[in-house]
Amino acid sequence: LRVPRHMLSCCCWGTDHADNVVFVDGYRDVPESEALESIGLPEGTFAVELQREASAALGLDLDKMDRQNLMVVKTQPGLVSEYNKLASSEEVIRKGDRIWRVNGKTGSADELLEMLATDKKLHLLIRRCKEKEVYVEKKGKPLGIQLSVTEKASCLTVEKVNPGGLVATLNEKTSDDRQIRVHDKIVAVDGVQGLAPDLMKQIKEKDSFILKLFSWDIP
Q1: 41: alpha, beta or left, given left = phi > 0 and alpha = psi -120 to 50?
Q2: CB of 74 within 8 A of CB of 29?
Q3: Per-residue model confidence as pLDDT tens digits over 89-146
C-alpha cells in the first residue's frame, strides 16, 4: 500500500513481524444508515463521533499484532487529542482501549484500520481494557504460551495457551479475572514497561515475576 504521509498515523506491528509506521489519506462519505446505536452498549464501551476535515490528522498510534484487536498505543496531536480535551474522564481515548466498531462495522484489525484511514465521518465504539496482574512462578518450567513479539512494539500479545502447560494449569486454579488468555497484552513485567524484546527477555531470565496485562471481553 503506497499512501501519502499525513492524516492518520498508526504504529502497526503485523503478524509478519514487520514494524512500520503507516500514514494514510483520503476519505469517503458514510451513509446515515451506518450511524451507531448509542443505547444498550456493553459495559466498558462508549461511543465517539469524529468529523475529519481535509487536512486533519486522526492522531492515533495503534497496535495490530493481534488481527482480532486494534489497540490504542498512544495519542498524537490530531482529532483524537482535541476530542479528549472536551470528553469526560470516562470517555477519554487512552492507551489500552480497543477500537471495536467503526461506522457500525466490526472486522479484523486491518479492516478497521482501512476504515479509519478512508472515512470522513467516524462513528467509533471503544472498549476499555481490563487491567490485571498475575503472579507467575516457573520453577524451571516453560510458560506453555506462544507470544507475538516485534522490535518496536510496547507489549507482547498472547497468541496461544498450550493445553497442559504451566499457564493453562495456573488458569485452572484461579478466577476468570486473573487468567492469562489468548488476545491478552503483556504490558509490564514486575512493574517495568518497555519494548517487547525487553519484556520477553525478563520473562525468559526470571523464575518468578508479576505480569501486568490488558484484556478485553471478546468479541
Answers
A1: beta
A2: no
A3: 999 999 999 999 999 999 999 999 999 988 889 999 999 999 999 999 999 999 999 9
- Whole-number Cα distances in Å, 194 to 91, 199, 201: 26, 6, 11
What does the alpha-carbon distance between residue 117 and residue 104 come to, in Å, rounded to a whole number? 15
Full-model pTM:
0.78
Query: What's the distance, CA 20 to chain centroid?
Result: 16
Taking the C-alpha atoms of residue 134 and residue 151, their distance in angstroms, rounded to an integer, is 24
Scanning the structure block, which residue is given the C-alpha cell 469517503?
Answer: 28
Q: Say if residue 194's pLDDT is above 70.
A: yes
User: Which residue do the cell numbers 478466577 mark?
Assistant: 175
Assess contact for 29 and 35: CB atoms under 8 A.
Answer: no
The whole-angstrom separation of Cα 1 and Cα 99 is 22
State the residue for C-alpha cell 507467575. 136
CB 21 within 8 A of CB 5: no
Task: For 204, list phi and psi in degrees, rounded to 5.
Answer: -70, -40
HSE of 148 in the Cβ direction (CA atoms, 13 Å)? 24
